[in-house]
Specification:
Blueprint lengths: L1 E6 L16 H15 L7 E4 L3 H14 L3 E3 L9 H10 L7 E6 L3 H11 L12 E5 L9 E6 L2
Parallel strand pairs: 1-4, 2-3, 2-4
Antiparallel strand pairs: 1-5, 5-6
Helix pairs in contact: 1-2, 3-4
């Protein structure tokens, strides 16, 4: 399977972190990356996204461009353990599509990327609206190969 991991677009400030909304720049950056993905060979069949507003808004923009459904997943918030996402992927392995997209936050997106490619959770930095494509012939730590990157 292919896994696209995307960080939400640029978000404004709010006294409640979970209520932060995308800025206009964040909306445009998310749409640019979605358009790049639409023109690539890695179009997702479904999007899993965080339950926080900025990730939901990003996923909505991507969904509109790519015409794919969104499923909110409670284990994709910024400080969640990447192992929970790995467990969910393994549990749903038989029903997963050819290409799945995850829209989430730092530090989780960075930790997921290194978990699947390098087998550790130290993470790498992601810019807002950045997306990576991983080839995961087997779902597990250290089993992925980086295939592409999309930047706003």
């Amino acid at each position: 399977m292919y896994l696209i991991i995307m960080r939400h677009g640029e978000a404004g400030w709010h006294s409640l972190d979970q209520a932060r909304e995308l800025t206009e720049s964040g909306r445009m950056g998310s749409a640019r990356v979605a358009s790049q993905i639409a023109s690539s060979r890695w179009r997702p069949d479904v999007i899993w996204c965080s339950t926080l507003v900025r990730a939901e808004q990003t996923a909505s923009i991507v969904s509109e461009v790519l015409n794919v459904p969104i499923l909110e997943r409670p284990f994709l918030t910024p400080d969640d353990d990447p192992g929970e996402c790995l467990d969910a992927l393994l549990a749903e392995q038989e029903a997963l599509p050819e290409t799945l997209m995850i829209v989430s936050h730092m530090p989780l997106v960075g930790a997921l990327s290194t978990l699947f490619v390098d087998g550790h959770r130290r993470g790498i930095p992601f810019m807002t609206s950045q997306a990576l494509v991983l080839d995961l012939p087997i779902i597990g730590p250290g089993c992925g190969d980086l295939k592409a990157q999309f930047l706003a």
